[in-house]
Structures are given as structure tokens and as C-alpha cells.
Amino acid sequence: MIDKAIPYGRQNITQEDINVVIAALQSDYLTQGPKIIEFEKAFAEYVGSTYAVAVSNGTAALHLCALALDVSEGDKVITTPITFAASANCVRYCGGEVIFSDIDPATYLLDIDKVRALLESSPKGTYKGIIPVDFAGRAVDLEVFRKLADQYGLWIIEDACHAPGGYFTDSKKENQNCGNSNFADLAIFSFHPVKHIACGEGGMITTNDQVLYEKLLALRTHGITKNETGYTNSITFANGNDDQSTSYPGWYMEMQTLGFNYRLTDFQAALGISQLQRAEQGIGKRRKIASVYNVAFKNTSFVKGQSGVVPGHAYHLYVIEVEDRLGLYNYLRENKIFAQIHYIPCHLMPYYRQFGWKEGDMPNAESYYKNCISLPIYPTLTEEEQQFVIDKVLDFLNG
């Protein structure tokens, strides 16, 4: 019998994590210090991108990506309805229009055939971009999405919040890490406590595009730049109308666009660096837990979903589909197993219904939602706890 509560996900904080945060708190910088750059460089190396920009959370990351790509009033952007609302909301923050496209029921990912049909049914130029989501940790095949996007002049933001350490295999049989930006213009990650890398809150944007990188740096900090090669005011003005001046003074900066305060703190970055060092260990444990679930549910007629081995899956979530989802959810909670539902389809949220979205628009997503439930999966889940979860799921479903 397990007495303590078992959540669907949770952070793993070690003594080393605590030590590095204390050291950061005792340092000269709590924010805008050296740990930010150190974290950015380490994360870029981990995923294989050229640049990384640390921000305050995953939602901020999405918002800045939309701003950097100049999403504006009336721009139409395609995304999946099975995701956290932020994947769509970032478009609305900029005045754009969210166009949902249905999922592939076998993978739960944005269905490229449905996206292609959507694009083919409208004149070129109708849509501006696509935001695919590596839902549950399963990597989107961005190579095929890139080819489609290039045909229609679209940009791609990869929402990889669920998938640091995940990958897909491209047409050359090479593994492409989530967030390496080889096919997406920008990719984003979250460091919320239930994610693979926890900073309390926090996010990261990765890209291989220097122009976008420099825009993100300014947008993250109020639209302010201290890069004098891009200054527009004169040296004379900067120095207080001193005509003898030949260089900009050390204090000078320029706000050149309307940005935000979306910065990450140094102590969060220190925690992120420490967590990143255990990232592969954590993802290995997640894959092991998933494999145990796969075996436990393999021969059951009443469980379907992401069973079987999926190469490159980062297993942020382990999702199954069952007929009596509400009954199972309540039964698990009675036994202190706090499974969760991911996600209510975005297009049926009251906010998005006002734009005309309704039941029946996304049949695959809606069918998935009726039966989906996410079981506990996180690196510190013990074998005993997982077996307890499995036993309770089977007890209920076996009647």
C-alpha cells in the first residue's frame, strides 16, 4: 500500500541543486549576471542550436517568438488544438488570428496532411506561420513541415516544452534534436517544475538565425540595446551635446522598440545549469517508466494510446485513452494518484469559441479529449509507486 500522494509529474531537486542556488544568492548578481549566459550556452550546446535566449517562462518565450517574427493584426497562424493554451495565445497577444488544425489520432501531433489541405484550400499568402507542438514529448517531424512551409513562405515556431532531449529521425537517417532549429526558425522550452528541467519558472528560445537572436535579446529587455553598432542617436547627443566626443559613453543605451521585462534570474539559471547536467539521466528514467507502462497495458483491450516504443520520445507525459475516463480519474484520486488530463481542446475554450470555433471542427482532437488521461511519470517515481498505479488502473478497468 502506498500512503503518500503520487502526482502526474513533479520536480527532482537534489542537494547539488540547492547548493548552486545558494551560491548564486550569495553572489554579486541576482539577475542579469553571468549565470544567464552560462545557462544559454550550455542549453544551446545540449540541443545543438547556435543561439539560446533565456526568458522568464515558456509563455514569454512564445510571445517573444511571435514578436520577433513580426506577427501583427490579422495574420493567420496554424497550430494544434491539443496543447496548452499558450501555444495559441502568443498569436493573439500580437493581434494575429489562430487557425486550429486537427491532430493525427495515432500520434496526437499536428497532422501534416490536414495542414497541407488547409494551405491548398486558400491562396498563397493567406497564412504566415505554423506552430507545431512536440506534445507529451513526442517529436514532430519538422523536416516534412519545413518542406511544406517553404512551399507557402511560412515560418515555423517549434513548441518543444515537452521535449528537451527528444528527437526525430530525418530522411537521411540522422537524429534531429528537438529545438536544434535546423528546420524551425525558432524553438521554445519551459522550465516549469513538472518539466524535464526545472527552474521554478523559466523558459528558453533557441535559433540558428542571428537576426532573430538579436531581436529577441532586445525584446526580452524592454526593447533596449547596448550594442553601439546599432545606435541611431548621434554620439554628440549621447554625450550631452558635447561636439568633442568621439565615442558613445559607457552609460548609454537605446530603447528602439517596445519590448518587455521577460528576463530570467541568475539563481534560476544556476538551478537550470545544475538540472541540465542530469538531463540525460532523467530522460532515461522517463523512458524506462514508459516501457514498464507499455508492457503492463500491452494486451489489454480497454487501453489504447501511446503504447509501444517510440524512438526519440522524451515522455514528458504518458497518455492512455480509456472509455470511462471520468470514473478512472476519480478512482485514482481516491487512491491518492493524481492523474491529469492533457488537454481540453483549445478551440473549445470559451475564449476561442467567440471566434466561431465549435464542437465538430476538430473531430480527432475532440475524440481524443473524451478518453485521454495522463499517468504519473517523472524521474523519482519508484518501481513500487508505478506498480501501484498500474494495479489501480487495471483494477478499475477490469471492473
Automatic annotation (TrEMBL):
CDD domains cross-referenced by the UniProt entry: AHBA_syn
InterPro entries named among the record's database cross-references: DegT/StrS_aminotransferase, PseC, PyrdxlP-dep_Trfase, PyrdxlP-dep_Trfase_major, PyrdxlP-dep_Trfase_small
UniProt enzyme class: transferase
Superkingdom to which the source organism belongs: Bacteria
Coiled coil: none
Alphabetically ordered keywords of this record: Aminotransferase, Pyridoxal phosphate, Transferase
Modified residues (N6-(pyridoxal phosphate)lysine): 195
PANTHER family noted in UniProt: DTDP-4-AMINO-4,6-DIDEOXYGALACTOSE TRANSAMINASE, TRANSAMINASE
Family the entry assigns: Belongs to the DegT/DnrJ/EryC1 family.
NCBIfam families xref list: PseC (TIGR03588)
Protein name: UDP-4-amino-4, 6-dideoxy-N-acetyl-beta-L-altrosamine transaminase
Organism: Flavobacterium sp. WC2429
Organism phylogeny: Bacteria, Pseudomonadati, Bacteroidota, Flavobacteriia, Flavobacteriales
Gene: pseC
